[in-house]
Design goal:
465 residues, alpha+beta, Immunoglobulin-like, seven-stranded mixed β-sheet, five-stranded mixed β-sheet
Length: 465
């Protein structure tokens, strides 16, 4: 998505035109067909079905969002898909020819569109091409563009304008918007680079959507065409590119509950990197496991533990003795099957899962995913996808709270996919100009410095009675 130098408007006029026009001044990206004749299709919110999914509280987990079965099963009212078709995207969608082959982008996006179009997870699906503004397509037309190439590529599209348009005009209850783009933001000059974060924040924040969430999925693909760098310190374009893969992205935008449900239904198995902003996840099912890799003298502290009722869960550790010579180790089972892949990744969990306690040296010593052995076990461990092992050698003489907390930290791939100079993309590798700054803008708009954990599991640590 190549960003040109934008026209400057007087404030009153700018407020009207911001969502109606992109910016045109990149003369190196040519269209094939002269003037555009399509009619823009505005999003008629009055025709969109409304469905505010009800969220019931979990009696055992205060202040945690938990869906009712009906809400979880109900389809979304609408999914809008926006495919950017500027000149910078042509290399992902080369036109068929004697020497042309399908790119991974074409295969991946065509498959996604097919799965969405045939999915019962949304009652209505609407498809758009993004040029300087959205143009309505049918599923067949948009899929045909992905497979057969862009017929009339746009001169350019402006990321902040597109984001503002989606948040302002296409945001609705029980509805999500999926934007597919390379997300290459081209500032008008190097002096504008420090304001990329601010531009994105302003675009997302203008309409003050308090329940807004954004999830970003990153893919890479072979690229067969002309690459247009965001920073033109070298060549203005790189023809016959590229020797390296080029990233592209799905941005899922909408109310947080709708985004979460859409991802669970249609993106859970996507082989993509990911990062999420503004989504509230239900607290995952969990329990202490007193017969799985435990060590030392401890038992369940719940009064009802002796009954061993089917399906019962336990969160109180009663310790007989703990010392450096006789440490206690216990395992907490977690069922993260409904969480996004990022939060199920053992490497991410090992780095970001923390233990918060008082008057104890308890610490997490290992996080492991379920194995074929645990899944086939006849014990309660077969109910859990991950296992958190905790070790302690000292504790207070009275009961103390202990919490297992997953912090929502930015994954390492974001910085790894970011470059500050894409003018020599074959040497830079699969990176996107100022990508981390784009996400800084999203984070500032949605999280606003109030980082909340992904989930918290409350435990109690007490001396044996």
């Amino acid at each position: 998505m190549n960003l040109p130098p934008c026209f400057r408007f007087q404030p009153a006029l700018a407020a009207v035109l911001l969502v109606l026009a992109g910016c045109y001044s990149r003369n190196d990206v040519k269209t094939e067909g002269g003037a555009v004749t399509e009619q823009q299709v505005e999003n008629d919110q009055t025709k969109m079905p409304r469905d505010n999914a009800k969220v019931a509280p979990d009696k055992g987990a205060p202040n945690v969002a938990v869906e009712t079965d009906a809400a979880a099963a109900a389809p979304l009212a609408q999914v809008n898909v926006f495919l950017e078709v500027s000149g910078s995207m042509e290399g992902f969608m080369p036109k068929p020819g004697a020497d042309a082959s399908n790119t991974r982008f074409q295969q991946q996006v065509a498959q996604f569109l097919s799965e969405l179009n045939n999915s019962p997870a949304a009652s209505r699906k609407v498809y758009y091409r993004i040029k300087e503004k959205p143009y309505r397509d049918s599923y067949q037309e948009l899929s045909g563009t992905v497979r057969g190439g862009i017929k009339e590529p746009a001169s350019s599209t402006d990321i902040p304008t597109v984001l503002d348009t989606l948040v302002s005009n296409y945001y609705a209850a029980n509805t999500v918007n999926v934007l597919i783009s390379d997300f290459i933001y081209s500032p008008k000059n190097t002096g504008a680079i420090p304001y990329i974060k601010t531009d994105i924040t302003d675009a997302i924040s203008r309409t003050q959507r308090t329940d807004l969430a954004v999830s970003v999925y990153g893919f890479t693909s072979d690229f067969q065409g002309t690459f247009y760098p965001a920073i033109m310190t070298g060549a203005r374009k790189v023809p016959n590119c590229c020797d390296t893969d080029i990233p592209y992205y799905f941005w899922v935008i909408g109310p947080q509950d709708a985004v979460r449900r859409f991802e669970a239904a249609l993106l859970a198995k996507q082989p993509a990197q990911q990062v999420h902003y503004g989504i509230k996840y239900p607290r995952p099912a969990s329990s202490l496991l007193n017969k799985y890799q435990n060590k030392g003298d401890w038992y369940y502290g719940e009064k009802t533990a002796s009954k061993r009722e089917a399906g019962a869960t336990y969160h109180t550790v009663a310790v007989q003795e703990a010392s450096a010579q006789n440490p206690v180790e216990f395992v907490l089972g977690l069922n993260l099957s409904t969480m996004p892949a990022l939060y199920r990744d053992p490497a991410y969990l090992k780095q970001n899962l923390k233990l918060v306690g008082q008057d104890t040296d308890a610490k997490i010593v290992n996080v492991a995913a379920a194995t074929d052995q645990t899944r086939a076990s006849s014990g309660p461990e077969n109910q859990y996808t991950h296992f958190v092992k905790v070790r302690l050698t000292k504790m207070a003489r009275a009961a103390r709270p202990l919490q297992v907390v997953l912090n929502d930290a930015r994954p390492a791939w974001v910085s790894q996919w970011t470059t500050q100079n894409d003018s020599n993309i074959n040497q830079a590798g699969p990176k996107t100009f100022a990508f981390a700054s784009l996400l800084d803008g999203v984070s500032t708009a949605i999280v606003a410095g109030q980082d909340a954990p992904v989930f918290q599991i409350p435990l109690t640590l007490e001396p044996a009675k």
